[in-house]
Write a structure and sequence with these properties.
CATH architecture of the largest domain: Alpha-Beta Barrel
Distance between the termini: 49 Å
CATH superfamily of the largest domain: Luciferase-like domain
Structural class: alpha/beta
CATH class of the largest domain: Alpha Beta
Number of strands: 7
Order of helices and strands: HEEEHEHEHHHEHEHH
Largest sheet: 5 strands, parallel
Number of domains: 2
Strand content: 5-15%
Number of helices: 9
Helix content: 40-55%
Length: about 240
C-alpha cells in the first residue's frame, strides 16, 4: 500500500497482484486488465530473470483475518501469524489454513512453502521464570500497549484480541514465551502440538537493552533450540 491509497481496498489490490505474480513465475508472461493493474508481456518477450529455484522461491503470506488466512491457503502460500493472538485463536486459524490449503490448485501447491506455518511470539529466556518477569514486565506491557494504541487500532483492533487493561499475567497466559528455558520449551511444544507450527519468529521490544536481549538469544540458542532438533542433528551438534 502507498500513501493516499484506499486502505479498505488493500486486500483486493494484493489479491489481484498475486495472480500476476504467479503468471510471471509459472509462464513468464501475462495479459491483464484489472481494477488496480494492467499490462501485457507477450511473445517474443518474457519476464526475466527466471527464478533459480523452480517454480519460484518459498513464498509466505501474513494473515490475521479469516479472509486473508483462507486466501493464503487456497493459493498455496506458507502462512505467517502474528504475535498477538492467543494459542486458542492460532489453533483455529491454522485449522482454517489447512482446510483451505487442501483446495489449492496443483500449480499453487508447488510453492515450496505450502503447508509451512510460521508463528511470531515475544520470546525472552532467563535462568528462572521469576528473573524473566523481573527483566521484562514493565517493558513488554508498555510495548504492547503502544503497539495496539490509537495509531494502529484501525487494523490491529481486528486481530489483536487485547483490550485496554493489559497485565503481564494476561499476556503470559495468551501471548508471551517468557521464562526459563524449561518453561519456554514446554510452551513451545504445546504451541507446536496445537497449531502444526513449523517455524518460530522471535520478537522482543527494544526496551530491554542490548545486554539482556543478547543474553536471552544466547540462552535460546543454547538451551531451547537443541530440544527441537531432530535426533540425528542433535547428536551431530553434541559432537
Amino acid at each position: 500500500m502507498g500513501l493516499g491509497k484506499d486502505f479498505d481496498g488493500r486486500r483486493d489490490m494484493v489479491e489481484e497482484a498475486v495472480g500476476l505474480m504467479f503468471d510471471a513465475f509459472h509462464r513468464q508472461r501475462y495479459d491483464h486488465k484489472g481494477k488496480y493493474f494492467s499490462g501485457t508481456v507477450a511473445e517474443p518477450y518474457e519476464m526475466l530473470p527466471h527464478p533459480v529455484q523452480m517454480p519460484h522461491p518459498p513464498l509466505f503470506m501474513a494473515g490475521g483475518t479469516d479472509r486473508s488466512i483462507g486466501y493464503c491457503g487456497r493459493n498455496g502460500f506458507g502462512l505467517m501469524l502474528s504475535t498477538l493472538p492467543s494459542v486458542e485463536t492460532l489453533a483455529a486459524q491454522t485449522a482454517l489454513y489447512k482446510r483451505e490449503l487442501a483446495k489449492a490448485s496443483a500449480e499453487r501447491a508447488k510453492n515450496p512453502a505450502a503447508g509451512q506455518i510460521d508463528i511470531a511470539r515475544w520470546v525472552y529466556i532467563a535462568d528462572t521464570d521469576r528473573q524473566a518477569r523481573a527483566d521484562t514486565e514493565e517493558a513488554i506491557v508498555r510495548h504492547i500497549a503502544h503497539f495496539g494504541g490509537t495509531g494502529t487500532a484501525g487494523y490491529l483492533g481486528s486481530v489483536s484480541e487485547k483490550g485496554d487493561a493489559l497485565t503481564y499475567d494476561d499476556l503470559l497466559n495468551t501471548t508471551l514465551l517468557h521464562g526459563s528455558a524449561e518453561t519456554v520449551i514446554a510452551r513451545l511444544r504445546e504451541l507446536q502440538s496445537r497449531t502444526g507450527m513449523t517455524s518460530l519468529l522471535l520478537h522482543y521490544p527494544p526496551y530491554y537493552g542490548r545486554e539482556k536481549a543478547m543474553r536471552s538469544l544466547k540462552l535460546f540458542s543454547e538451551r531451547v533450540i537443541p530440544a527441537f532438533r531432530p535426533p540425528a542433528r542433535r547428536a551431530a551438534a553434541a559432537e
